[in-house]
């Protein structure tokens, strides 16, 4: 694997292999072992053209816990405000010596462009590109599901037969797209629930069923319910006219939470709009994996940095 751009590129064996390496990394990620020297002498550049809390900081921690040198670049306050292009920005930073570039960008396809253009000679990791993909988020979601299901016996396992319902703003969600492809590769089934205005026009070819009614989906007794953030910054009133109506029809409120099995996983990639797509009780309940997802993000990002920069030999 030269780059990590999309979960669509991952088959079952590769995906399970990444999750297994993340298991190997977990003791370091969770600070039971302080650091590994594995990437000493390597340089990782975090290139963030869009805001982030979880992805940026966990890539930073992952690089540091593997002893890599790290530069974090935010477009805000940089020469991007003077009109410098993605190509010139990437080449400028790469000229200082980059082995890996982690990129988040508002344009769908930005990571692919960087990887395939030949502008830089470094591994490219997609940290979220527009509404296209967010592969490390889907990997950490799958890792979290596998750990909840199998605990310390997770290694080598996939998600065969797991029934996952993803709810909300599918149209703008790179998390949903990456999850659909990865969950299929791992043997899970995916049901997408959204208002018609928040579904892509063409979902033919997506390995998922589509529905509009959250209550019916909850009656179907899913193993996982993943609530998506309403991405107000990417939409106008035509998509999303009324917060109260949205919450009433598509929010995971306390009444719907009570109808889920005690072991149904409640997931959210964050950041959450509490009271809109998810109630505070649902976000903070024992079913919620929200903070586990954040913690597991460090293990997954250590695993992918390790695999891209050191080859596929186990640490
Ligand atoms: N889930 C996620 O990508 O969060 P951030 O935008 O905070 O990185």
TrEMBL record:
Lineage: superkingdom: Bacteria
Name of the top EC class for this enzyme: transferase
Catalytic activity: carbamoyl phosphate + L-aspartate = N-carbamoyl-L-aspartate + phosphate + H(+)
Domain Aspartate/ornithine carbamoyltransferase Asp/Orn-binding: 160-308
Protein's UniProt keywords contain Protein biosynthesis: no
Record's keyword annotation contains Transferase: yes
Gene3D superfamilies reported in the protein's UniProt record: Aspartate/ornithine carbamoyltransferase (3.40.50.1370)
EC numbers: 2.1.3.2
Residues at which carbamoyl phosphate binds: 54-55, 104, 134, 137, 270-271
Keywords: Pyrimidine biosynthesis, Transferase
Stored InterPro entries: Asp/Orn_carbamoyltranf_P-bd, Asp/Orn_carbamoylTrfase, Asp/Orn_carbamoylTrfase_sf, Asp_carbamoyltransf, Asp_carbamoyltransf_Asp/Orn-bd
Ranges for domain Aspartate/ornithine carbamoyltransferase carbamoyl-P binding: 2-146
Physiological role: Catalyzes the condensation of carbamoyl phosphate and aspartate to form carbamoyl aspartate and inorganic phosphate, the committed step in the de novo pyrimidine nucleotide biosynthesis pathway.
Family membership noted in the UniProt record: Belongs to the aspartate/ornithine carbamoyltransferase superfamily. ATCase family.
The protein, known as: Aspartate carbamoyltransferase
Lineage: Bacteria, Bacillati, Actinomycetota, Actinomycetes, Micrococcales
């Amino acid at each position: 694997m030269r780059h990590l751009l999309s979960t669509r590129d991952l088959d079952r064996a590769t995906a399970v292999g990444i999750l297994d390496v993340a298991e190997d990394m977990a003791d370091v990620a969770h600070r039971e072992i302080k650091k590994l020297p594995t990437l000493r002498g390597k340089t990782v550049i975090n290139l963030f053209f869009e805001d982030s809390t979880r992805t940026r900081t966990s890539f930073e921690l992952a690089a540091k816990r593997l002893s890599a040198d790290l530069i974090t670049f935010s477009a805000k306050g940089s020469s991007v405000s003077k009109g410098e292009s993605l190509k010139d920005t990437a080449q400028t930073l790469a000229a200082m010596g980059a082995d890996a570039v982690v990129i988040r960008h508002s344009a769908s396809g930005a990571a692919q462009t960087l990887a395939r253009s030949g502008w830089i000679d470094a591994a490219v990791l997609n940290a979220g590109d527009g509404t296209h993909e967010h592969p490390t988020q889907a990997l950490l979601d799958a890792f979290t599901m596998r750990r909840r299901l199998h605990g310390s016996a997770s290694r080598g396992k996939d998600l065969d037969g797991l029934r996952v319902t993803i709810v909300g703003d599918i149209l703008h969600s790179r998390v949903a797209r990456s999850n659909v492809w990865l969950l299929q590769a791992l043997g899970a089934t995916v049901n997408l629930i959204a208002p018609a205005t928040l579904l892509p026009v063409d979902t033919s070819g997506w390995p998922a069923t589509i529905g509009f009614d959250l209550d019916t989906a909850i009656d179907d007794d899913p193993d996982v319910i993943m609530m998506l953030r309403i991405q107000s910054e990417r939409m106008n009133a035509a998509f999303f006219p009324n917060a109260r109506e949205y919450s009433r029809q598509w929010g995971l409120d306390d009444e719907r939470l009570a109808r889920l099995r005690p072991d149904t996983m409640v997931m959210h990639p964050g950041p959450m709009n509490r009271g809109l797509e998810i109630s505070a009780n649902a976000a903070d309940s024992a079913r919620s994996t929200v903070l586990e997802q954040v913690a597991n993000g460090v293990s997954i990002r250590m695993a992918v940095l390790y695999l891209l920069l050191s080859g596929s030999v186990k640490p």
